[in-house]
Amino acid sequence: MTTERANSNPADVVVITGAGGMGVAVARRVAAGSTIILADVDKPKLDVQAASLTASGYRVVGQVVDVCERGSVEELAARAQTHGRVAAVVHTAGASPVQAPVATILRVDLLGTARMLDAFADVIAPGGAGVFIASMAANMGSLDADLEQRLAATPTDQLLELPELAAATIGDPGTAYMISKRANQLRVRHESLRWGARGARVNSISPGVVATEMGAAELDGPYGDVMRAMVAGSGLGRVGTAEEVAAAVSFLLSCDASFITGTDLLVDGGAVASIGITRR
Questions:
Q1: Does residue 102 contact residue 173 with C-beta atoms inside 8 Å?
Q2: How far apart are CA 41 and CA 123, in angstroms?
Q3: Which of 64, 79, 84, 240 counts the most CB atoms within 10 A of its CB?
Q4: Residues 192/201, Cβ–Cβ less than 8 Å
């Protein structure tokens, strides 16, 4: 038994949100032989990546989607079903602190993830699996237990009404990102029961610093020095690649992970583990 998802059935559909480096790496790793529904809010970028995958022999359907909007996400889920059995959902779409202000990060990274979890809980096939990309940033702060419970369980349409999520309360994009990514982990855990009721699994992955366009922008941004120090102090001492994240996604989608659901996998080269540890 391999760690590859059983993907030889042409009736299987793999939904991937985010046509950036990570999303495309996931598509190339897990979706050979299946129909890929590749979704992104940026149509020009989506068209380029869909054409590249098609030229490489993949079967790709492009779909413009705004993950912040319930109707747009529900349309994505409905369209995916028309192409076959929705066997896998991989949500990589997001905005980082150097790319967006507080309100946008909360809408895309927090609300968008919740909307995807909701919509695909109703269409994922029995035996299917989902992977939602969070971030090692989720481990960089401390939230009280009451707020964590509300981030996990508040109905999606009311999520941004939580008083702790007011822009004036959060103050800066880095904090908004940390809270959003912690909420991603919590909501995946909470929603694993609903996915499980359909015979499906769902997990999150928290990447560290990865060599993608977004990762490069963060290294050039105001948090760059901190991030470089974390990389230098980590067990592996290097940035990761999109392909390494895709390999972790492949494992969590596979039958080798059949007893894993509702959990988060750190894929960060040991950066979080190294915090507070002095190298000998």
A1: yes
A2: 21
A3: 240
A4: yes
- Give the Cα separation of 29 and 45 in Å (integer): 20
Give domain status of residue 40, yes or no: yes
Residue 125 is given by DSSP the state P
Q: Is the pTM for the entire model greater than 0.70?
A: yes
Quote the number of domains for the chain.
1
Q: How many CA atoms lie within 13 A of 271 on its CB side?
A: 25
DSSP 240: B
Q: What range does the domain containing 41 cover? A: 12-212+241-266
Burial class (CB in 10 A: 0-12, 13-18, 19+), 162: middle
Catalytic residues: 177, 181
CATH code of 255's domain: 3.40.50.720
CA distance 124 to 103: 30
| Partner residues linked to 203 by β-bridges | 131
Q: Is 149 inside a domain boundary?
A: yes
User: Is position 51 within any domain?
Assistant: yes
Residue 54 in any domain: the answer is yes
Distance, in Å, from the CA atom of 184 to the CA atom of 216, rounded to the nearest integer, reads: 23
Candidates 63, 75, 62, 157; CA nearest to 120 is 75
